[in-house]
Amino acid sequence: MLDRIKSLHDEIACITAANKDEAEELRIKYLSKKGLVSKLFDEFKNVPVEQKKAVGAAINELKNFATEKINGLKEAFQSGHSGAEGLDLTLPGDSISLGSRHPLSIVRNEIIRIFSRLGFVVSEGPEIEDDWHVFSALNFAPEHPARDMQDTFFIEKDPDVLLRTHTSSVQVRVMEKTQPPIRAIFPGRVFRNEAISYRAHCIFHQVEGLYVDENVSFADLKQTLLFFSRELFGEKTEIRLRPSYFPFTEPSAEMDVSCSICGGKGCNVCKHTGWLEIMGCGMVDPNVLDLCGIDSKKYTGFAFGMGIERIAMLKYGVKDLRLFFENDVRFLNQFQSAL
Ligand code: DAH
């Protein structure tokens, strides 16, 4: 008897009705006077005395279960309800958030777009490099401090396997493989062993540029950078080149743009100088050309390198560089771009 109660219970647990009439048929089948559940009550008198308690409780429980279940089915069809109660089907749908391009990608794409208009193509090189491509071929003296553990991340204590500290390494790779004319830019991620603060990070991004051909002059460099700066920061932008030193360029310079925030009058961002430093540049040292297999008697070239974070900070007025790495959508959503 208990087995039959159990299988009836399982059967009722699975019943469904497509409309009110079907629900009523189910009520008749199980709960009417001659219904399957009611029949159990009739048979109860034959149950041996010692089982009466358990069987009685099981039949009562089954009856309650069947009543609740069938009432539930009926209610679903009362006054036109169809199981979708509480839903307002005229409400507009939830919009799906699309995300936005990262500000560093926006700036990188903008830089690439400007230089492609001047005929520069994009190349990339590896992030894990060797000493030759990051330092030696770029004229770094053996005792140069950049080769120190304090500045460079080495991999597994091998002094010849390291994370590139600048994208200038890609210059070397391209010159080793290609003869001039070369006109290319190299965007990428670089690594330096620096404490993280609002203005420095151990991982950041650069864009390197290289132009090697016959008769490339410093005037070409200056004109290229002026065009670039005006495209990026606005047509009123002025540039100035200050003499500097890099092992791989001679002469070398640091380039400033007139402060786009105060228009050169002086403000907090430009520290009241009216100028913002945005990149290093210079004429490729003939030594570097020769080390990379390019005839320095025939060809000359210029190179430049800039930090993408720095430009993004200036362009968008972002005061803390760490924001670019935290992936907080409240920050990222503020940047929209078609690029
Ligand atoms: N590699 C330099 C740096 O990371 C930037 C640089 C300076 C690149 C001068 C150049 C250059 O190509 O000519 O600080």
Terminal CA distance reads 75 Å
Structure annotation, total helices: 12
Heteromolecules bound: 3,4-dihydroxyphenylalanine
Helix content estimate = 25-40%
- Which architecture of the largest domain does the CATH hierarchy give at level 2? 2-Layer Sandwich
* CA gyration radius, whole angstroms: 38 Å
Gross morphology: elongated
CATH class of the largest domain: Alpha Beta
Largest sheet at a glance? 7 strands, mixed
Q: Tell me the structural class.
A: alpha+beta
Order of helices and strands: HHHHHEEHEEHEEHEEEHEHHH
Quaternary: single chain
Give the strand content: 15-25%
Q: Which topology of the largest domain does CATH recognise?
A: BirA Bifunctional Protein, domain 2
Low-confidence stretches: none
Number of domains: 2
CATH homologous superfamily classification of the largest domain? Bira Bifunctional Protein, Domain 2
